[in-house]
Amino acid sequence: LGQTFDRMLGFLKNPVVVTAEINVNLVALTVMGLISRLWGLSYPRAVVFDEVYYGQFVSLYMKRIFFVDDSGPPLGHMLLALGGYLGGFDGNFLWNRIGAEYSMNVPVWSLRLLPALAGALCIPLAYQILVELQFSHCAALGAALLILLENSLITQSRFMLLESILIFFILLSVLSYLKFYNLQRHRVKYMGLFTYMLLLAIAGLHFWHMLGDWSLSNVSLLCHFLARVLTLLIIPVAMYLSFFYVHLTLLYRSGPHDQIMTSAFQASLEGGLARITQGQPLEVAYGSQITLRNVLGKPMQCWLHSHTNTYPIRYENGRGSSHQQQVTCYPFKDVNNWWIVKDPGMQQLVVSNPPRPVRHGHVVQLVHGITTRYLNTHDVAAPLSPHSQEVSCYIDYNISMPAQNLWRVEIVNRESDTDVWKTILSEVRFVHVNTSAVLKLSGASLPEWGYRQLEVVGEKLSKGYHQSMVWNVEEHRYGKSQEQKEREVELHSPTRMDISKNLSFMAKFTELQWKILTLKNEDTEHKYSSSALDWITMDTNIAYWLHPTSGAQIHLLGNVLTWASANIAAVVYVCLSLWYLVRRRRTIYDIPEDAWQLWVSAGQICVGGWVVNYLPFFLMEKTLFLYHYLPALTFQILLIPVVLQHLSDHLCRSLLPQSMFSALIVAWFSSVYLVYHTFSPVSYGEPLSVAELKALRWKDSWNILIRKQ
């Protein structure tokens, strides 16, 4: 004990020393990146290009109003909103015009801060990726400086836009995997999605090589496999779900976008449909008064509807109709959307006490609440869909056309064949008993005689459960009035209910994720839209902002020399790789095996990253802009120092060629800086004369804005 005490005293006699290694290159690059991206961040104090788009979502976050955006997962939007929150933004600004001056309540610097920080941190990330790929610090420094001096990345990161955040997380994921792989190797290797798939493929390839390594035991291989499953599957999925959880927790109020969601989703939001449906009876019973919403929601949300007007005796193409009462799908809430669920064996139109619930497989009649006519279909062609049956409300004309108004209720999302038809939650099909046709929204707009409402038909070929054939009860009350006059008053009155219908997080996540993947905004031609082929040679640009009086303007334009060099580097890499492969097939090894593995690894990341972030745009049906190319460009830029170092190490083997090659690189890099400096005025929005603006139009296809004198 005494010896232990003496050792403790000896420890206390010496100072506690902590040593740390500081990479001066990394610190200097980070500082330069912050200066280049944060300098004059509040300028211009006006809406710049797509800030008019993303700003709307920031305002909705500030007001906790639900929205849907098909651009991807909500993390980027939440980070933009975080900037607004930190700056004390109240969400009150009308985002309706590019160039509009920001009011004093808009914290411009704070809103642009996180994209700028993400853009700045891409510079040290590029440096570290090259280091982890086992390239020299000189090559890594070159990659970082090229990112630093890339005008397009500077412009895109200085405003409230998402691309710099996307690129940051892409590079961070690549670096994280490389560190994970190198650490293991030393101890014993919505656009972000495509990079993630690339990393999964590389991880699978690495593990495949491990399977052939007999020095690794089965237990060690299992540990490697589980480590990859944890880091590349379980943790990313958990993080992805957590983003949506925060998103849905923050946005709990009804707004303009919730109408594309299901009734159950809408009812879970505060206000909107929830004000109408909160506390409705859960179980649909005989005598229930209901509105039926089509689940598809396309081309717009609509409810089963009827009115006193009848189908024309003859259509314009000469075909005849039944002249029965029209049944349509109406995109607005209306008293004519109400229907009564009737037991075919009884005459009453009220709910009995106790209520008799309708179950899967039960046969019902649907009575239109206002006109009291029965939903009917028969072997008469629909007005716009002649291969389908006409759906009507039956009028007895005393001719040989009997009523056919029996419908079987099929609950599509049932758990058992005895399930009760539930308000909002149940998705049902109505199958016509006589003809087996299914009640369906065709989506076609009727002519003037049908008030441009949407056509409803009886679909004879009812294979599967297409959403156009599926309906859910949205508003629901238990009918109490047997007399028609009293019932009309009842139908006009608001519903009052007694059961809350809250969706689970996973149900809301699944629905929202599906909407994000399938939602298609109407694509329109834009002045600055472009094709993916235009991006490689930068034959296009985008004017982001123009000062109303001076010649100051901001353009998305890249460093021309860097873009050209990146293309050349890609071609050289592919050609050299093919040459090496052919020679290796002939057992001729031009470079050492470790150099070959280094070359291949760099290609997997840089060329692979370019491919997965560029080629998918050829398959996308959306309006494309130059900024969509920036993630792919970033990987292509990383390839430049990879190729240069390879050429220096393996093709310039004597002193003289190496010296000449180094001098060429210095001259080339000086030219890169010169081009950056030349175009920096339109990256930062500095005032320029007409002559200076004309001098920047290096390509006739560039749209540099020049005011008429």
From TrEMBL:
Domain MIR, first and last residues per copy: 281-344, 355-412, 416-476
EC number(s) given by UniProt: 2.4.1.109
Q: Which GO terms describe its cellular component?
A: endoplasmic reticulum membrane
Q: What is the lineage of its organism?
A: Eukaryota, Metazoa, Chordata, Craniata, Vertebrata
Q: Which UniProt keywords apply?
A: Endoplasmic reticulum, Glycosyltransferase, Membrane, Repeat, Transferase, Transmembrane, Transmembrane helix
Q: What's its membrane topology?
A: Multi-pass membrane protein
Subcellular location per the Swiss-Prot or TrEMBL entry: Endoplasmic reticulum membrane
Q: Which residues cross the membrane?
A: 16-39, 75-95, 107-127, 161-178, 190-208, 229-252, 560-582, 594-612, 624-644, 656-676
What GO molecular function annotations does the UniProt record carry, in alphabetical order? dolichyl-phosphate-mannose-protein mannosyltransferase activity
Q: What class of enzyme is it?
A: transferase
Q: Which SMART domains match?
A: MIR
**Which family does the record claim for this protein?**
Belongs to the glycosyltransferase 39 family.
Mind telling me which CDD domains this protein's record contains? beta-trefoil_MIR_POMT1 (cd23281)
Which InterPro entries does the entry mention? ArnT-like_N, MIR_dom_sf, MIR_motif, PMT-like, PMT_4TMC
**Protein's name according to its UniProt entry:** Protein O-mannosyl-transferase 1
